[in-house]
Sequence to fold (231 residues):
Amino acid sequence: GAGVSQSPSNKVTEKGKDVELRCDPISGHTALYWYRQSLGQGLEFLIYFQGNSAPDKSGLPSDRFSAERTGGSVSTLTIQRTQQEDSAVYLCASSLGEGTLSGANVLTFGAGSRLTVL
Amino acid sequence: DQQVKQNSPSLSVQEGRISILNCDYTNSMFDYFLWYKKYPAEGPTFLISISSIKDKNEDGRFTVFLNKSAKHLSLHIVPSQPGDSAVYFCAASGIQGAQKLVFGQGTRLTINP
Fold:
């Protein structure tokens, strides 16, 4: 597609339930990122996929969080046994991911999935 | 450990004047610096970037300045317009290649008519 697509745009769930958030990156982008923005906070890195390499999971806050990227395209972020502190906007981004000698690695973001845990 | 810091959570500027947003970083290995703009209920959008080998990059009303010795960068918007009201994030990336961006906390800019 023309941009990064995320679904659902809004999700309200009860504490303890599992949730899945989906990201469809820009076609041809090999790198995919998940960030989250909690209320009043900056963008917190969660996980990064680059091609067939092992993902960089260094930002995942706990083992309740996991993500996969199937076929090098669509990604799903799963949060198990949600807690109230998981409430945030979850942002997905993609980039060409090759890095160049002449330019920065510009990420293109989706509109985000707002998660509210009651 | 906050590697990229934006110490001003908000800034209010009169329309037509210059807006200056500041950002500090701690890691001297950062290779590129970027500014993103975010409107409510939308994802951040890329504004402008600068390589660590430069000290200035200009694009229309937007100019980014980099002071490597001070580990400081700033975004200048002149003249400021009402549509510039948004949250601005600075970000940094590591060595050339596909790297995650490390973001600051953001500065909410309000342009007053």
Q: What stands out?
A: Residues 8 and 40 of chain A are 22 Å apart (CA to CA).
